[in-house]
Amino acid sequence: MRSTRWQAIGSVGLVDTAAPQAGPHDVVLDVEACGICGSDVHAFAEGAWISAGDPMGHEFAGTVSAVGPQVSTFAVGDRVAVNPMGPCGSCGQCAGGSSNLCANPAHSSFGGLGDQVLVAHAESGARLFRLPDTMSFEEGAFLEPLSVAVRAVRCADPDLAAPVVVAGLGSIGQCVVRVLRAYGASDVVGIDVSTPRLRVAAATGVDVLDAREGDVVAGLLDRWGTSDSPYQPGSGNVAAFFECSGAQPMINAATAVTRAGGTVALTGLSGHRPGVDLDTVVQKELRLRGTFAYTGDDATEAFRLLESGAVDVAPLVTHRIPLSRVDEAFAAQHATDGSVKVVVLPDRP
Q1: What is the pTM of this model?
Q2: I need a labelling partner for 59 at 20 to 30 A (CA). Which of 148, 236, 264, 284 fits?
Q3: CB 107 within 8 A of CB 126
Q4: 297 lies in a domain?
Q5: Residue 3 pairs with which residues in a beta bridge?
Q6: C-alpha separations of 109 from 140, 304, 344 in Å
Q7: Is 295 part of any domain?
Q8: Angle at CA 88, nearest 5°, toward 299 and 127?
Q9: What is the pLDDT of residues 7-48, one digit of tens each?
Q10: InterPro entries, per this entry (predicted)?
């Protein structure tokens, strides 16, 4: 079978490798759709968090092609979405309910950018979700980024009647916008520099700002007015700011426009070490809240939102590229002004 492997900065390629074999508690999937994540793009363009030869792809859905003898709830032919996180279940973080921070997630599933993938210990936790006939594999592949968004919104716990900003409208930011809207947020602004991403976000009913056109901070102050606190007069009035871009200008804007006592949820990876205005954070008593990945409960909630139709992810797919041209898929996802979500599909006759 073929598997996409990272080769070097700016270079990925397909290699032939042995097909996965299901152990007693495992499932093998034929991959039917796999999205390219922002972290995949950081790896592709910068070499972040990856080594030569590592398999790529963790946003995938597929058809069960083999099951281990101890697997009882899934069968060959089942259409499933995958939570690729495979925590150990026994470390301190897992015991404390933070399985997303597991010290040894040895059962995690990577390699979705390939013909097949192994899901180890498939019945432990919330790993596989059977797709209804009405849900496409492409939609199922959004389970992973939507789970990230669910966790971000749950951790930030924003006042849904107050002003909220989402900066960075890649797939995570788009999913955050959709989760907020599904939960009832009514006053949301999305920020990006990509015309197609701004357009797709605006279609959900939120207002958008193009960071290339004018001063973002000034625009948000003009929209929602200012607030005062000790040593921070004329501050912004945003209750919760979801920073999904990892871009320094948006991190600066987040601390500037979030009101005293507000929350800045840091969800976007940057690949470097950006600065933070600590004086403003301290003087406004801002709550900086990093959010990473998701738990099984977050994935379960994300699937509920997909299955119920409360969140529609289909409009996010702008490119469909066959696995044999996976290098083109990475180039397309890296070109942010021309793509929202690139999905890699099997080669069909």
Answers
A1: 0.94
A2: 264
A3: no
A4: no
A5: 15, 114
A6: 16, 22, 17
A7: no
A8: 30
A9: 888 889 999 999 999 999 999 999 999 999 888 888 887 877
A10: ADH-like_C, ADH-like_N, ADH_Zn_CS, ER, GroES-like_sf, NAD(P)-bd_dom_sf
